[in-house]
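Quick one: structure tokens for this chain, please?
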Amino acid sequence: MDDPRPEKVAIVAEVQDRLDGAQAAILTEYRGMNVAQMTRLRRQLREAGGEYKVYKNTLVRFAARNLDIDIDALLTGPTAIAFVDRKVDGSPGDPVGVARTLRTYAREVPALIVKGGVMGGQTLTADDARALADLPPREQVLAEVAGLFTATAGQIAGLLDAAARDVLYAVQALVDKRGGALEADAQPESASAGEAPVPASVGAQAEPASADEAPEPASVGAQAEPASADEAPEPAPADEGSDA
């Protein structure tokens, strides 16, 4: 800066802070606009969450260079900057709403020309600024994202509920199965007189029958039990022609 007067230094510092802290900054040329048109534009931008400020190009250039932002090509003609700052409550501003307001106003007042801007430390061309105006509003994007998360959370909750039910059924089935196996493997108690024995599971040793009950018939291939004393075995037939 050739003439570092205090007021110029202060303006450079102000622009630098505004560029550094803003969500976005859109540069415009306002040549040919009257005071009433500028006042109306400022009011509309304020409602959209922006602030419209006029600075000399040389001072804006110094401020941008201090931040390593190259916007020299945009600093031609009378320049006004629409800053998109954070709101009073600390929530982010809406660069899309400000860009859309500028585009709409430029259609009504052709003297307003959007030249480009800065967003996230990156330079925006005029086409970039126009594309920014075509994006959905921040509130709509947040609502869509919130809806996505809500749907996903509901799906996850449903899956967890289903999984919990499946685990519960599986545990109950395992308990029933293990309970049956434990009863089968347990050592059986002797049956009391007059009570029928509980059938043993397959492969388990059969319980002895009580004195009043007849033994179960042996399976095929098992050794036959001896007959009782009252039942004598039939004599074998004598061979014909044998000697007496």
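The mean pLDDT is 73.
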